[in-house]
Structures are given as C-alpha cells and as structure tokens.
Amino acid sequence: MSKLWRKDYDLDVLIEEFTVSNDYLLDARLVPADCLASLAHATMLESIGILSSAELAALKGALIEIIQEHREGRFTISRTDEDCHTAIENALTERVGEAGKKIHTGRSRNDQVLAALRLYARSALLEIARETTELSRRLADFAERTSMVPMPGRTHMQLAMPSSVGLWAGSFGEELLDDLSLLWASYVLNDQSPLGSAASYGVPLPLDRELTARLLGFSRLQNNVLYANNSRGKFEAAILDALDQIGLSLSKLAEDLILFSMPEFGYFSLPAELCSGSSIMPQKRNPDALELMRARSASVSACSAQVKGIIRSLPSGYNRDFQETKEPFFKGLDIALSCLRIMKLTVEKLEVHEERLRAALTPELFATDAAIELVRKGTSFRDAYREVGLHLDRLAKRDATASIALRTSSGTSGNLGIERLEANAREWSERAEAERARVDRALAGLAGLPVAVA
Predict the structure, then answer these.
(1) Pick the CATH number of 110-145+169-204+223-259+276-351+417-442 from 3.50.30.10, 1.10.760.10, 1.20.200.10, 2.70.98.10
(2) pLDDT tens digit sequence for 23-78
(3) Are 453 and 123 in contact (CB under 8 A)?
(4) Are 419 and 174 in contact (CB under 8 A)?
(5) Cα separation, 110 vs 4, whole angstroms
(6) I want to staple 297 with a disulfide (CB 3.0 to 4.6 A). Which of 65, 100, 216, 251 is the partner?
(7) What is the reported pLDDT for 5?
(8) Is 41 annotated as catalytic?
C-alpha cells in the first residue's frame, strides 16, 4: 500500500509526522462520507465510459463493505495512509484490483475532502437543527407552564419591573429560533456539490458534475471549479459563526440559571444529578455543566476565529493550510451539539420555586406601575415619574400576578404569544425533517441501503 502521490522517493519521517499530524485520526469520522462521494464519482465515471458496469458493481460492493466495517470499528487509517482518502483507495485496490486504481480518475484529494466535509457537515447541521428546535419547544412548554409565575425583571442586574418566568423562558425559545435562521443560511451555503472541481481547474474529461451532485442529494452544483476550492474554510467559518450565535444564547441562559439557582436568589434549583460535588466541602452541588457551557461557547468563537485566521491570506487554489481548518470545524460542531443536549436536559429537570420568586418582588419593583396609574388619571408621564421617584418610601407591595397580567401588548408577560413560538418551532422542525428525509432518500438510492454520514 502507498500514498496516492507516491513516485520514486520516500518522505522524510520528520516531514511526514509534521505534515500528517493528527489528520489521519480526524479523518476517521469522514470515512462514510468519503465512501459515498466515491460511489457517486464511480457511478459518474461509468456513465462516461471510464469504468465498466462490472467494475462499478465491484467498487460499490467494496465501498459499502468499508462503510459497514467503519461502523463496527474495523476499518483503520494509519499515519502512513495520511488520510481516509488514501486508506479507502488502497483498500479498494486490494479488494477489487484494477477498478480500485481507476476510481481516482478525474478527481483530486482536494475535491474529495471538500465533498466529504460537505456531506458530513450537512448531516451534522441537520442534527443540530433538530436539537435546536427541540430545545426551543421545551422552553416554549416551560414558558407556558410558568406564564403567570411572577419573577423580578432586572436591568443593570438591579431590580426593575415585575416580570414572569414565562417571559424569561420564552425569550430564549424565540432567540434560538432566530439563531436557527442563521444556521439554516449556513446549511444552504454548504449544500453545494464541489465534486469534479479536482485540484481547482477541472480535467480534460466530460465529467458529469450535475450527476454526482444529484446522486449525493446536493441541492445544486458549486459551479466555478476554482471557487469550489477557494470556498474551503469559508463555508466552515460561516457554519461556525452560526454555531457561535447558538453558543451565545446558551451561554446567557446558562449564566441566568447559575445565578438564579444560587441560594441568595433561590428562584430555581438544579437537580442533584445535574451537579457535581466538591472534593473537600461535603455540602457542595456545583453547576459544572452550565459553567463549562459558558466556557465552551467561547471555544466555538475561538474555532471560528482560528479557521478565518488560517484562510485569511491564502492565495487562490489549494494550499496545505486548509488541513488545519478541519479540527476546529469538527470541534465546533461537537461542542454545539453537546451544549444543546445538556441544556435540553437542564430545562426538562429545572425546579421552580414560586414562593421565593414572589418574595423577591419587593415594593420598588412596582414604581413604574405606580407612575402609569397616575398617567391614567391625567398626569403627564414625566411628572408622574418624578412624583413616584421622590416618594419611593410610599410604595407598597402589590399583587404581582395582577401586575404582569396588565401587560397585554404582544410579547409582554400578559400576552406571551407562546402559540406563535410553538408554531414557529414546529415549522422549523418540519422543514429540517423534510430536508433530512430528502437527503436520506438520495443517499439510500445511491448506496442501496440506509446510510448516515455523521
């Protein structure tokens, strides 16, 4: 077995270690995607007469075998392979002979890795979209259950106005759906087939790039072959930027939960099974997962910055620098998915202490309510503001439930519009599931069996 570029010399061992680094380990997760892209490419080669039907059948059988072996943990990639592309082609050549040597006709490892990354990202993004909509729906349910549970509203971290737990929870549900709009934009950007672009300049063969795009379930072809390679890193950065927005939402939600579950507040409690303990203090229940969520959201930002820093000053065409974008890209996807799942579990198990929340609504929170009452009696707001502000000691605690119910304009505590949030979340969920079904049909048609690439 040999490297795809092997000629009449061996690479210096130190250079091999430096250039390969851990790429061959990272590539393990791309094996199914690369096999599917190879199958589409082989199908196209048969359609233009490069492969016979018998060779295509042999390659298809071997590629499906490799996917199954990978799922069972039996397909390995060594450092000498450099990457999954070499390992797969070497395995094909060993298993089906000359057909294995022909499969690389008309392509480069450049468009190979682009295609595999696009397929992997597509599957991962659909899973993240599913988890995002699920979390939004859980928050909507939580908001509906707690819509009339009073909660102090704060600005500058100081007491501000009467609010509700439902308003607080619903805000994050809506925020995540807006984040999903950005994620979907990155999904649409990613959903372009780069196969056939080769090393940025195409090849003198009548490659049917539209066929491979269709076989792989891409919605369209990435037309310009140089742009296909120039877009590596940019597409990953766009996806990471969208994930960063989700991370920002989750980090703020995590911080609120940490803060409001402190004994000094006591608004919420995190169940013991979601908290770790201290090695020295027996009483401690630490919200470590939420603390790590804050930190890991910053890591997603760092991943995006890392990718953009790598590609920022590269000239057109392929450059080996692109290899370094793979690890932060995978890391960002992994972090986003795990944070969404952790937050979904947290929202499901969160305990609300209504008595502590009601006790926290001290008289000063009703200052604006008092001013508005004077306005209703004919006083200008500015004069009412001064009158109340100069006599805060006269404020009395009010019925918090009645106060939040008086706020009836759209999106306020007395009119949360949860049904709109639920409908929006349902629409996003249906869109993502329809897209997943479309992609699965295309890939199942190509491979002849249910497949997953992430």
Answers:
(1) 1.20.200.10
(2) 778 889 999 999 999 999 999 999 999 999 999 999 999 999 999 999 999 999 98
(3) yes
(4) no
(5) 12
(6) 251
(7) 45
(8) no
| Per-residue model confidence as pLDDT tens digits over 142-163 | 999 999 999 999 999 999 999 9
Task: Please compute Rg for the chain using Cα positions.
Answer: 28
Cα–Cα distance measured from residue 257 to residue 237, given in angstroms and rounded to the nearest whole number: 30
**Of 2, 181, 278, 316, which residue is the catalytic one?**
278
Q: Which has the higher per-residue pLDDT, 17 or 301?
A: 301
Which CATH number does the domain 13-105 belong to among 3.10.129.10, 2.30.110.10, 1.25.60.10, 1.10.275.10?
A: 1.10.275.10
For the entire predicted model, the pTM comes to 0.93
Ordered by start, the domain boundaries in the chain are 13-105, 110-145+169-204+223-259+276-351+417-442, 363-399
CA–CA distance from 45 to each of 5, 66, 72, 350, 394 (Å)?
21, 20, 29, 56, 85
Q: Is 156 one of the catalytic residues? A: yes
Task: Work out the number of other CB atoms within 10 angstroms of the CB of residue 328.
Answer: 23
For the chain, give the longest Cα–Cα distance.
94
